[in-house]
Structures are given as C-alpha cells and as structure tokens.
Description:
Elements: E1 4-14, E2 20-31, E3 36-40, H1 47-55, E4 62-67, E5 70-71, E6 79-82, H2 86-89, H3 96-106, H4 111-124, H5 140-153, E7 158-162, H6 170-187, E8 190-195, H7 198-204, E9 207-211, E10 219-224, H8 236-258
Parallel strand pairs: 3-8, 3-9, 6-7, 7-8
Antiparallel strand pairs: 1-2, 1-4, 4-5, 9-10
Amino acid sequence: MRNLKFDNVTMQFPRAEGGTVEVLRDITMEVEGGSFFTLLGPSGCGKSTLLNIAAGFEKPTQGSASLDAETIDRPGPDRTVIFQDVGNALFPWLNVWENVEFGLKMAKASAALRKERCDKYLELVGLSEDRGKFPFELSGGMKQRVQIARALANDPEILLMDEPFAALDAITKRYLQTEFRKIWKDTGKTILYITHDIFEALLLSTHLAVMSTGPNATIREIFKIDLQEPRLTSNRDFAAMHSTIEGIIDEEVQKSRAS
C-alpha cells in the first residue's frame, strides 16, 4: 500500500475584493497505507480543502500531495470521495444495485466482476435485500451505506471521506460508525476522514491530526490512537484523550475569537 503524503502544502484563494487569503500553510504529514487517519479542527480551518487536494480536485499554491513518489495533480481511480450530502450523491433514476455497479460499468468491467463486487459489498454494508430499491425509498443511513458500497466496489486504494455521517440522526450515526469501523478492518483500505466530532474521531481512527484555526491553518498536533478494544466512551483512557483533544480545539477557537 502506498502512503499519502503532504509536503509543505500551502493553499491560497483569491478574495472578491482583491488579493488572496491563505487557507493552509506549510502542511506536512503522512497518512500510512492501511491507516484510518482523521482530520479534526475548528470550522473553516481548511480540512475539506486538504481533502480536495488529496482527491486531485484542487492544486496547492505551494508544496505537493503525493502517493509515495507519484504527485497528485488530478483525480484518479486510486482515490474515491464519499460526501456528506447523500441526497445528491446517488443517481435517483438508478436502483441500489445499479448505483453500486455504475463505476464498474464505466470502467467496462465484465458482468461477472460487477456481480461479484456488488454482491460482496452490498452484503458487507447490509443491503443485499434492498438491491432493487431506488434512492427515494431509502433512509439517510441506507443511502450512505450505498455510497460506501459503491466506493468499495471500485476498489480504490484510498477512501476520502468528508463528514459522511454528519447529517444523520444520532442513533443512525452511532450505528454506522460501529459498522464502518468493521468495514475498514475487513477491507484494510487507507482512509482520510474529516469530522468535527471528537467522539467519532476516537471511535474510528488509528491516527488523528488536530488542525489549528484558520486562516493560515496548519497541523497543531498528530496523535496515534491506541485505545483498548472495543472502544467505549466510558473507558478512562478514551475520556482522557477526549479531554486533551477538546482542550486543544477550545484553545484554537479562543484564538480565533480573540483575533
């Protein structure tokens, strides 16, 4: 598995009134192949911008993102993005099965491979019995599971996930967090994940990067998350790490308000 690297990434955007605003400054970090790496930080700190650079949707003003020695300068089949807005992520005129196999059909995969992958990943996300349903017949959580199955069916090296469970109700969100950690363990995919939820980050991650407040955001601190399994919010070590990370983010929020 290749490692995803950010090397001195700086990102500036033009202002409407002229000049530029620097969103990211000198971001250097490495996401190891097979890890579950989460970006956490205050709103507006550039987490989604960093994910878009990894996806190849945007090019940094300075520095680079790469998979090992291969510079990322465009989208590619080795990376798949899973979005928060499940309402617009699926094709409404296609049923569950057809949505999952869509990328494979575009890649001209054989019918046998499409069936094998769709069967495998619909079972993995618990939607084998719902393959004939259309998106309007699905709950928000089910739609997100279809999006995950579709991403996995394309067999990317890396899943890039931008707050995928943020719009879901608390019960569905907690269920999908538990299920998705199992899916990650089963598939061994590399994941770069964005969330505002410290609990979610600690439940899912192997590594967690806390970003400073924007503009000029950078990496404040990176943690290796090595908590007792199963991960429980009532565990003393879990609570202590939550408190530490919450303190860092609160400090960044206070800086932002002061400025």
